What we know:
The protein is an alpha+beta fold and 608 residues long. The chain is built from 23 helices and 7 strands. Helices cover 71% and strands 7% of the residues. The relative contact order is 0.04. The chain crosses the membrane at residues 350-369.
Amino acid sequence: MAGRPSFAQDNVIRQLRADLLRQPDSTLYTDVLNQLGMQYHLSNTDSCFWYAVKARDIASRRRDNRGLAGALNNLSIFYALKANTKQAIEYGFKALLLYRELEDQPNICQVLMNLSVFHDFSGMKQESNQYLYQAMELGKTLAQDSIYSLVLINYALRFEPDSTRRDSVKWALERSKEIIRKYPGSREIYYIQALEADGWMKEGEGAKAVQRINELADKAMKEGLVVVAIDMLDHIDTYRQNGYPADAIPAKEKAFAIGSRAGYLNMMLPTIASLYRYYANSNNEAKKAYYGRALWELVRKRLELKSSNYMNYLDYFLKEQELNEWQLSNRVQEQKINKANMKRKSRQQLIGFMVGVLLLMGGFTYARYRSYKELRRQERLLREMNDAISEKNQQLSIHDDFKNKLIAILARDFREPLNNIIRVSAMFRNKDMDQASLQLIIDEAVVSSRKTLVIFDNILRWIKSQLSGFVYNPAPCDLLLLFEQATHYVDQRRIKLDIPSGLYLAGDQEMLLFINRSLLHCATKLSPGEKPIVVRAVQEELVRVEVICTVSVFTPQMAAHLFEYRRGDDMSVTLVICKDFMDKMGGHISADVQGVQLRLGYSLPSFN
């Protein structure tokens, strides 16, 4: 029944429940309810019924024929699983009329197939075959051929015992296999493999067939397909009836156990009766009594259902709910009357009781308030401790970054002078070296050592600014004076200062002197020949200082990464320290290329 594929049953149900909460209108909400009911008919009949009733109520209020048809279809399947085929046929026919009115061909095909199964259960073979043939003809025209594959499987199951239809049954199975390949995870594959096992049984491979049936039943249970698992286990009893010495009792007990847990007990009357007869003949009194009680309960329910002329289960449910509401209302009224009588008889006792309750509530409220205040105080202390720990962690992280940078610079920039000293020492041991070569190596060592001393001086300044005791206090710094001092370290003839007199910056004098000297040194190094270098200062919201020079080969990409450390580039160490100094003072340093001009500049607040 119900030819819709089941992909990972539990995952599909969880996804549909999540989708139910996100639906924007009642039509989509009803559709998801019907999908949940259809999924649950394979694993839990009560859940299938609950979702179908809820969907039918909403669809009836909203006059949603498509939602109502889906709900009636699920109710039809529910009654079939409860062995009430008359009610199943009634609801299925109502669903068929609505789907024909909507011209929904796939669902028309599905309901026709279900009606064929329901009539077959009721012993109406001729009507069953007519519905099946209609479903076969309609299924050929469907683009959604997954439903057609299940119709073909029902055809094969129906006419498998008929030896005159072997060719058509074989064709139906092969055609169904072709369709199922497009829909991996479809439950139709269980029935096809079960029919293949039936073929093995007819060919004399009974043990192989029984093993396959048990494997299919276990797999169906793992995927939550309870109805499919019961159908698979029924094959073993069929093998026994056809003469194969298969022990069908374990399979029947297993089917009964899973069917009773999931609410499919009504469709298992033959199974329960068979188990009762078996244990009655084998003198197993415990299991005879167990299955006897189950058989008695099931027969009792069926007799009640029959005596009530197959009462509409849904209407009965709704009437019962209404009756429960009236009974509850009646009990509420009785309680109100009793309370009124008690008030008239014992008003003083009630007042005393209420005063006691109020005192208890007041004491409890006061205790809770004290506890709440104490909890808030502890939370505040804990938050302050967490903030202090976070601050310490940030300081440790900063110090760790500083340590890593310092180690990287020392490892790179102090290797070369040490290597030169080692080379000079080796040359002194070499008596055969001439004076000129020795002097050349000594000069290289001197230059390298001086450069290293400059770098070391820069690093010492940087270390001082990184120490935890360092506190930056901005002071007035004469910009013109600082640049005049910085020009002593470069070729003064190339430097042109365009800085207003009396312009003061808010910063640290040593840091600014280092930055100015470093920028001038960088400009003279990058600018070829004797081209002038202009230093310009403009006061706006902040004071913008620029060192402008002419460069030959310098790209905007190189300028964007100029103040980053690069292995093997001595100048990058100085520029990284400049950027760090500027960050300490709350300013901004950058480099920009405009044509052949390189602009090295920084911005700081004015102290004027």
